[in-house]
Specification:
Layout lengths: L1 H17 L9 E4 L5 H11 L3 E6 L20 H4 L5 E6 L4 H12 L3 E4 L13 H7 L4 E6 L14 H7 L20 H9 L4 E6 H8 L2 H9 L16 E6 L2 E6 L3 H10 L14 H6 L1 H12 L4 H11 L4 E3 L3 H5 L2 H5 L3 E6 L2 E7 L23 H7 L5 H9 L3 E2 L3
Parallel strand pairs: 1-2, 1-4, 2-3, 4-5, 5-6
Antiparallel strand pairs: 3-12, 7-8, 8-9, 10-11
Helix pairs in contact: 2-7, 7-8
Length: 406
Amino acid sequence: MFLAHTRKVTSRVAQKRTHTKQALSHLRVLDLSRVLAGPWATQCLADMGAQVIKIESKSGDDTRHWGPPFLQGGESSYFISTNRGKKSVVVDIRSPKGQAIIHDLVLHSHVVIQNFKVGGLKKYNLDYESMKKINPGIIYCSISGFGQTGEMKNEPGYDFIAQGMGGLMSITGEPNGDPMKVGVAVTDILTATQSKEGQHIDLSLFDTQIAMLGYRAQDCLLDGQVPKRYGNAHPTIVPYSTFECSDGHIIVGVGNDTQFAQFCEVIQLSELSTDPKFSTNPERVKHRSELISIIEEKLKTNTRSYWLQKIDETGGIPHSSINNIKEVMELPTVKEREMVVTLPHPHEENLKMIGNPIKMSETKTEYKQPPPLLGQHTREVLADILGYDQEKIGALNREGVIKIHE
């Protein structure tokens, strides 16, 4: 009897999985954001099933014009990278009729995400207090440079500013070189990934930058010392860096004493693992320069492929080549992990895009539509969601309140 019950339950579960919706397919998101942090966040929501309506001005999101490279139709690679799965609706939010359209959409939405300057939407009656009166259950997320409170709330902020002011550049780069920003807008992207009864969510690039300093900031709070730049090396683990071989560089990350002993054996310097100056990590940190010089001198005697193969045979030491982005895209694991996906686009039959890194067992990520053309869904959204008739839509278009892509 128990087994029979189990079979019934298993059958129901299997049936449920077959018809499972995406994780966020019950949500509609009104996207008033531009550039990177906001659009990146809403693209992640779209990948997980949310219906995302992207509100744009007549000229469109600024990043539509940030290039080259561009598609033949004029869409920039930058815009394409952060706007998959959305519907584009062009509305002039400066006009009362345009604001009325946004208010109607808020009534039919669950989430609003915007990254205007602090207070910038209040004059258009599109701030949180205005939206909450229309839809008390709305979740309203504001992304800004320095947050909605504090003396710097009105200051403009881009990722570059946050990296510099927030301390990241001070610990990035070679020890005797200039401060260096990270090669991608990391603060923008990490701010996007943090962004749940109705409330106002306040996210800032600066706060995110402080939080992502992690143990380097905690070190400063603990000992009062200014963290230094270590280039590709690690402040508290040695050896953990890039190393020069006869034909280029490799990465080796030795995380404990056992791995160090294995590494020393691989490079035929077993005596180092028993040397009191190098046998424990604290001692290796203390004698960093001497140890690194010995290792580099040895690794320069052979090629990258030789050392990578030798290290790979141990199976226990983290290591890697240093790939350029084209080489990364060609790695088998990129295909296996579905990190490059293809979507049909009006101006590119097989548009390749970077996939979503979030993998869920029961609610799969789906890529339903490519990044939209400007105003591509204006008519559809106003008719299907708001119930506007074609006469009203046509009048709004003629008055310049909206723009329709034909």
